[in-house]
Hints:
The complex is a heterodimer.
Chain A: H1 2-7, H2 23-42, H3 45-67, H4 76-91, H5 97-119, H6 124-144, E1 161-162, E2 166-167, H7 171-193, H8 196-206, H9 208-213, H10 218-244, H11 249-252, H12 254-267, H13 274-288, H14 295-309, H15 314-323
Antiparallel strand pairs in A: 1-2
Helix pairs in contact in A: 2-7, 3-7, 3-10, 3-12, 3-13, 4-5, 4-6, 4-10, 5-6, 5-10, 7-10, 8-10, 12-13, 12-15
Chain B: H1 3-9, E1 10-21, E2 24-30, E3 33-35, E4 39-43, H2 50-57, E5 65-70, E6 73-74, H3 80-85, E7 88-90, H4 103-114, H5 132-141, H6 157-169, E8 175-179, H7 187-200, E9 205-209, H8 213-219, E10 222-227, E11 230-235, H9 237-242, H10 244-253
Parallel strand pairs in B: 4-9, 4-10, 7-8, 8-9
Antiparallel strand pairs in B: 1-2, 1-3, 1-5, 5-6, 10-11
Helix pairs in contact in B: 4-5, 4-6, 6-7
Bound molecules: adenosine-5'-triphosphate and magnesium ion.
Magnesium ion is lined by residues 50-51, 93 of chain B.
Amino acid sequence: MAAARDIAEPKGRMAGAAGAIPRHHYAAFAVMVALLLVAPLFVYPIFLMKVLCFALFASAFNLLIGYVGLVSFGHAAFFGGAAYITGHTAKVWGFPPELAILAGTAAAALLGLGFGLLAIRRQGIYFAMITLALAQMIFFVSLQAPFTGGEDGIQAVPRGVMFGFLDLGDIETLYFVVLAIFLGGFLLIYRIIHSPFGHVLRAIRENEPRAVSLGYKVDHYKLLAFVLSAALAGLAGGTKTIVFQLASLTDVHWTMSGEVILMTLLGGLGTVFGPAVGALVLVSLQNYLAQIGSWVTVVQGTIFVICVLTFRRGIIGELGRLLKRSL
Amino acid sequence: MGHAETAADVILETEGLTKEFRGFVAVKGVNLKTRRGSIHALIGPNGAGKTTCFNLLTKFLVPTRGRILYKGRDITHARPADIARLGLVRSFQISAVFDHLSALENVRIALQRARGGSFDFWRSDGVLRDLNARAVDLLDAVGLADFAATPAVELPYGRKRALEIATTLALEPEVMLLDEPTAGMGHEDISRIVALIRAVSANRTILMVEHNLSVVADLSDTITVLARGEILAEGDYASVSRNPDVVQAYMGSGND
Ligand SMILES: Nc1ncnc2c1ncn2[C@@H]1O[C@H](COP(=O)(O)OP(=O)(O)OP(=O)(O)O)[C@@H](O)[C@H]1O
Ligand SMILES: [Mg+2]
């Protein structure tokens, strides 16, 4: 029995073992933070901030697809919806950036609640189709509504001064604020995955009827996960607006939903660090291949096919398998 | 035994339970009475409607007609998650474990439910460690103590069924519904599960579907024979096995 109690606490190997955070997660996190701290010395900071926003977006998406097994085709609505709200409140209502981002995040959470209530009872492809249809409605609202600026979007959004003393007009300050937002979101997602709630989510992903038969109201759990994912996607979208001073139709377009799926798959579905790595790879590709114009989409498509055919676990998923660690 | 006392003895009861699938009647006017504290077996040839009955009782299916009473309370329109909270917990015909969770985590998911809601996404899962000791005890009770850290998917079939029972037991159910607990098992596993069911039946009611007639003969106090959705016979093993209709039904389908 004593022996059983010992092995019941596997040393970080097994994903989901309760309690102590595995040491290799600390190590990987430390490496990531160190790289992000020195990166602006070598890489254009606006590019890095774009990566960080998409890394947060993909991590939020992964919370749903990787840990609940729900495939949403409509996450652009939360990212883009928040982008518009942040843009509008900052530019027209004169909100300081922290409140503007918060407003965008809250709007995305509310939108997520609405989507969730309508879609959460559906399974598999039906769930995906409903989220896609609802996101398309948000796209058309964005195209038509007066406050979104139609094809032009909301331009020249002021970056403003955060908390009354952080001038985001200064690119270095802006970078570290965006980095802090990303790390905050990332750690929150990590905590959600490793909370009692996260354990139930994993059980639902593994065997939903069994979770029901044990008395779990699985729809409530899925709905909360959906709202959290939407809110965090909104946090990413709102932050993006402050960085680029722009909210546009691209942010709510269905291709944005597609890109976040691609980032997550590429990096490794259901891994902690995968979506961020996937975002880095995809945003880099888009940037460095920009000169070849529309061929970028062809390259993306090819990557997607290669990814699905050869390394299904994604970059970090395969790496984790080699190292025999869940990353 | 007086009449009133008999009524109080029945923990689970159906009245005219019927389920139609697009015109096909899978369960037809079933009146089932399960006595508190008994082991009650539901047997019958393939396609007799046993699993459908289970799905109706646990609300995984909505009956076309009829009522279900649990401790005298009408639960016909309750939801499946509520049924579990009332103390009526099922297993599945195809083994139902959480594949990529360890055996310990499988049991702990059930213990976590018993502890209350788990919507606390901001809290560290370190709080779940308090449940580990109880989880290990439950694993120990089904002979799985050495497999605590093994992912369920890697357990041999018989062990999976044992894990399922440990998980169900974690909820301390008053009534356990087991759908073919020994299906697909070898002799050794079967005798282990039979002993286990006998042990856990001490202070609870068990309703089980079982094909293996020696297991049924061994364990059950009452047997209900279902054929083509209807109750064909009911009683103890001796009387049911002598019933000509039952013999006919089993011969007719070439089963067992
Ligand atoms: N969802 C469904 N839709 C249509 N028909 C169904 C459905 N579920 C079960 N049936 C039919 O109802 C009948 C009873 O099925 P059920 O699974 O309850 O039988 P069973 O007694 O459990 O059989 P087995 O011993 O093979 O497990 C079968 O003829 C089956 O084909
Ligand atoms: Mg069956």
